[in-house]
# Entry
Amino acid sequence: MNLIGAFKRLSEEPPFRLVTRAIIKRTPTSARTKARWDAVARPNYLAGILGGADQAKREGASKISVIEFGVAGGNGLVLMQEYAAAVERETGIGIAVYGFDAGGGLPALCGDYRDHPDQWRPSDYRMDEQVLRQRLTDRTTLIIGDIKTTLPDFVAGRKAPPVGFVSVDVDLYSSTVDTLKLFTLPGKSMLRRVPMYFDDTDFVFNHRFAGELLASSLQRYRDAGLWARTPQVSRQGFARLADSLKSGGFISQLHAYEDCVDQSLC
# Structure
């Protein structure tokens, strides 16, 4: 390995990679180089758009669409149009950008525990549409409304180039299901391979206990009569809790119900 090759290899290893990435992020290098080093604000977007453009070349397509589901404040959509312009210049593949959003924030939750009502609320992430539209170029189309209706209309219109990259950041499980209909609706147009990015998959509440297992556990509590339906602490419930705490070693002796429960608060 020559000296240049050795230096290049070294620059890719920690901790030198961090320094190299910082340098590339601040210098006018190609979009492909920035994507390789994650040297942009949203490397997942740049890598996905590049992947879509490369796939279009393999298929002989001259244009593609890239889509962001869940626009909110619009920072991601603005970066997507910026990356699309850079990739278009480098690859020669025309890139149209589309952003889908309800406009008024998250829609009503469907009642399924997978929508995480413990985390999300209707109207979260409202958009200032007027301000956002002023930041968008002619390349970008902002589509406002319920995805259940706007997406079928979009596909049926058949005016957009084939889909080459999709980002899904709609937070709710139910809304995510609606976005995936992009690939099944009659009249769909897409490349044979479409890179995708899904946000909100690694939060602390995204684990197996936050889904069906939790729902079934709560149902067992209800069926066993352990789920209190009033603020009053029953003697039976108090005794059961006390026995459990003592047997588990959390308390050393049992106490009287009257000494622990203030009935005046119920």
The mean pLDDT is 88.
